[in-house]
Specification:
Order of helices and strands: EEEEH
Number of domains: 1
Radius of gyration: 13 Å
Number of helices: 1
Shape: globular
Oligomer: single chain
Largest sheet: 4 strands, antiparallel
Length: 86
């Protein structure tokens, strides 16, 4: 499993890529949390990237795809997905 975490617009985006049964293809996950100011409790939301982006051939491509999707959610560009309650 590979993980990439980035800060974006006050949010922490965490992408994970899991190889599917030694196939060389990856399934991605994405969580978004408000960036911590101190030791305060933070809520996190888990998102499922679109099916077209789910099985990718390279781990770096998979992680970047999930992070791009997370940025689009934070920017309000994905209908029905938001982080306003975080």
């Amino acid at each position: 499993m590979a993980i990439r975490q980035v800060e974006y617009e006050g949010m922490t985006l965490t992408a994970g890529a899991f190889e599917v049964s030694a196939t060389g293809r990856f399934v991605v996950t994405l969580s978004i949390a408000r960036s911590a100011v101190s030791n305060t409790q933070r809520d996190t939301k888990l998102f499922e990237p679109p099916a077209a982006d789910v099985h990718l051939d390279a781990v770096e491509e998979a992680l970047e795809s999930a992070i791009d999707y997370g940025r689009a959610i934070v920017d309000g560009e994905v209908p029905g997905k938001n982080v306003t309650d975080l």
